[in-house]
Amino acid sequence: xxxxxxxxxxxxxxxxxxxxxxxxxxxxxxxxxxxxxxxxxxxxxxxxxxxxxxxxxxxxxxxxxxxxxxxxxxxxxxxxxxxxxxxxxxxxxxxxxxxxxxxxxxxxxxxxxxxxxxxxxxxxxxxxxxxxxxxxxxxxxxxxxxxxxxxxxxxxxxxxxxxxxxxxxx
Length: 170
Fold this sequence. Notes:
The chain is built from 9 helices and no strands. It has about 170 residues and is mainly α. The protein folds into 2 domains: about 1-130, no CATH class; about 135-170, no CATH class. Helix 3 (about 25-30) packs across helix 4, helix 4 crosses helix 5 (about 60-70) and helix 5 packs parallel to helix 7 (about 100-130).
């Protein structure tokens, strides 16, 4: 629980730059009982933030945690921290005086879509960072596909030089 209190990711992007210890890995290392205990504390502290007419009982909390662990074993504690912050800020809609498993799981599906989109953007940025600037020098005897299409079109119109260029070298 101390770790939970010390982490403060500000965005989904921060999740990808933090230690990647998933709840699935924690379950294998520490056991399912340990992970459930952490998740109960995390979920209960979140539920207490809301002033609702009906709250979740222990069975509902346990069932919701089991469903979360089943659906999102690749989430880290940082994911849950960002998720709960986003919920508190209203990113996924209102609770209308009710917090329960289906509402939390619906919000998590929305968070997951945001997470996937952010992961794609991070991946593209990372890929682009490894590419150098586009090359301006051409390799001898090479053309682009667009240039090939134009050459083929001109050859089709009877241009003898272009017809010769399209012939396979002997």
